[in-house]
Design brief:
Largest sheet of chain A: 3 strands, antiparallel
Largest interface: A-B, 39 and 39 residues
Order of helices and strands of chain A: HHEHHEEHEEHE
Bound molecules: zinc ion
CATH topology of chain A: Arc Repressor Mutant, subunit A
CATH architecture of chain A: Orthogonal Bundle
Structural class of chain A: alpha+beta
Radius of gyration of chain A: 17 Å
CATH superfamily of chain A: Winged helix-like DNA-binding domain superfamily/Winged helix DNA-binding domain
Oligomer: homodimer
Shape of chain A: globular
Strand content of chain A: 15-25%
Chain lengths: 156, 156
DNA sequence: ACCTGAAATGAGAATGATTGCCATTTTAAA
DNA sequence: TTTAAAATGGCAATCATTCTCATTTCAGGT
């Protein structure tokens, strides 16, 4: 369930865990220990994490399992894969689970990715405009992705 | 120079060519035949092109030169590298040259990328909102990137 | 608590886009 | 024309990601 309006607190770990179990079950996948550790790692990250960052935070996850299980989790709608201009991907918990539609600030110098949210009014304006553009081009809109490229505090 | 307000016609090939020469000169690079062919190929593409698409349209461009010269052209600000969820990059002429700030419709099924433009009013609203978010996070905003993900006409 | 077949794991090999290397060719200026 | 620097093109190397397969874990039935 969505949190009450105005409540920006994160869904509790336990609730997220239950939701993950449901999502995995829906695609006939088990919620194994390795997958639980991945979800935990992503919950703790401040922004989307790279494979290396995940490896670093949890020594017990072999690389091949990280890749395979992130693919499974993405298929189940538990995580989202994020591609920037760096040559490796990043992963974060799906918005469905965090209940926060958000966007990314990307530092073009060091590659760090930070989450941020837009005002609801702006989001709505945007969605309308995108729906119009999609219609003109014969596209069926599913989602949008908005990144701000710039320099982070440390790279000015 | 930017075209007159309301004029959405493309900058002529000759003008673009001159501008490319200037941009390359600014970073001490020559405007060679191979680089001219790349610019021509990108001008003809309906959207951002992959390396393979460029190879296909111009048989006289060896792959290693395509990669090397696209990197040079990107460095000079002539082309923009676009990364989607496919595992290969796409390139298009920089907005500086086409004089059209635009965004992308990306088909999540077949990967095709199509350009579209947003209403100026929406762009301004967006820029304001992004500037605010950037300030809060200590970022210096440079540019934004907005994609609509969905299904193209052929993949519905 | 045992079976038993299916799913998951982990170590390493294979893949494939991209980058690096270097001998040869082209360019621009003297 | 000479000459040094820049560019080229074929191919090797890199490296994130995917694949393979032998072993382990799991769930369900007994
Ligand atoms: Zn930075
Ligand atoms: Zn995020
Ligand atoms: Zn499509
Ligand atoms: Zn474009």
């Amino acid at each position: 369930m969505a949190p009450a309006a105005g409540n920006v607190a994160h869904m509790s770990e336990a609730v997220i865990d239950d939701e993950v179990a449901v999502l995995l079950d829906a695609v006939d996948q088990r919620y194994t220990t390795g997958r639980r550790r991945l979800v935990a790692a992503l919950q703790e990250g401040v922004g989307p994490l790279t494979i290396n960052e995940i490896s670093a935070t949890d020594e017990n996850l072999p690389q091949s399992s990280i890749y395979r299980n992130l693919a499974v989790l993405e298929e189940a709608g538990v995580v989202t894969r994020i591609v920037t201009n760096d040559d490796f991907a990043r992963y974060e918990l799906a918005e469905k689970l965090t209940a926060h539609h958000h966007h990314h600030l990307i530092c073009t110098a060091c590659g760090i990715v930070v989450d941020f949210e837009l005002d609801g009014r702006v989001e709505r304006t945007l969605d309308q405009a995108l729906a119009g553009a999609a219609k003109e081009a014969g596209f069926t809109p599913m989602d949008h992705r908005l990144d701000l490229l710039g320099l982070c505090r440390d790279c000015q």
